[in-house]
């Protein structure tokens, strides 16, 4: 039982970053640097552009205004939890729901592989 709890906790910790979207219009430097793929220089460039010209309207606006932030880069950062505005944060929360299902599936698979289930029955997780 303890082993099952430990496996579940480890899986939730691993997928925890997918549940929180960071809004580029309200985030500070530390929050931006928390996104995989954004370092100190990129976070500084994002903040300086936002301070100089106001909030970003959408991902296309972010791509145009910040050097080195092309469309593919912004898409990758969105997958890591970057959002543009309240609508982007809501989309990030919806995108986290499938990740939660994957975490449950991975946790069940890990529990089956470890042989921690006492009944010996297979765990079926519906998506």
TrEMBL record:
PANTHER family: ENDONUCLEASE/EXONUCLEASE/PHOSPHATASE FAMILY DOMAIN-CONTAINING PROTEIN 1, ENDONUCLEASE_EXONUCLEASE_PHOSPHATASE FAMILY DOMAIN-CONTAINING PROTEIN 1. Transmembrane segments: none annotated. This is Competence protein ComEA. Pfam families: HHH_3. The keyword Flavoprotein does not apply. InterPro entries: Endo/Exo/Phosphatase_dom_1 (IPR051675), RuvA_2-like (IPR010994). One of its GO terms (biological process) is protein secretion by the type II secretion system. Residues 1-20 form the signal peptide. GO terms for cellular component: type II protein secretion system complex. It comes from Paraburkholderia phenazinium. Keywords: Signal.
